[in-house]
Amino acid sequence: MEAASLWTPLPRYQAKQVRVGRRRFYQVEGPSEEAVEGLHYTGVTSILSATKPPEARRSLQRWRQRVGAETANQITASASASGIRIHKYIEAFLGGEVIPEMLDANGFWQSIRPVLSEVEAPLLLEGAVWHEAGFIGFPDALVVYNGQLCLCDWKTARKPKRREWIADYFLQVAAYVQAVNYVYQDYGIEVQRALVAIALDDQPAQLFPLDSAELTHHWQSFQRRLQTYRQRYSSRIDD
Description:
Elements (H helix, E strand, L loop, with lengths): L13 E7 L2 E7 L5 E9 H7 L3 H14 L1 H26 L12 H10 L2 E7 L3 E3 L3 E3 L3 E5 L2 E10 L9 H17 L10 E7 L5 E5 L1 H22 L3 E2 L1
Parallel strand pairs: 3-6, 8-9
Antiparallel strand pairs: 1-2, 2-3, 3-11, 4-7, 5-6, 7-8, 9-10
């Protein structure tokens, strides 16, 4: 397949939430609302949240105790709202829509905007991708970036992050890459690069690029977390 053909936007799938007992799953739907596989999938973020290492859970609990439950909830809610807004505007920008001028005063937008300018072509924005291992995800963007296919995940943060603090971000994008390669294999898609970009309110975005070897390493780690999840909850249910 010629490289130029990879610049063609890919078909975008959706997924609807379904409940089985007390648990939430996703069922994949095609662009024409046709069920693709008739299977229920667990979300990548749900898997990672349920299998978070004990130290990470303790660290979060210590933070909540230090700042107080009410303040912690306010900070979390504010961060979530900021992230949702920025994701909305990033998707619109990459989709060629006009962006409101008021965003010029938004620190997160100013932080991430130069990164978006390097995107040469969006192939998929916020589409559902799934994997035969039984999980589903919703990657922010699959784009041509610096001349290569790259799966991008946009984050926001109040303060810069250290690489060792965001290990689950890397597992998340590694799982997404495997799912994209699985769903779009008939289109000749083989993603070997990923980028976690963290927008900050008062400085340029942090960029954490991942090459093929790093993605393979993180994919292996995700598979171990997936196995743990299955042992606890049985992550995939056939209809």
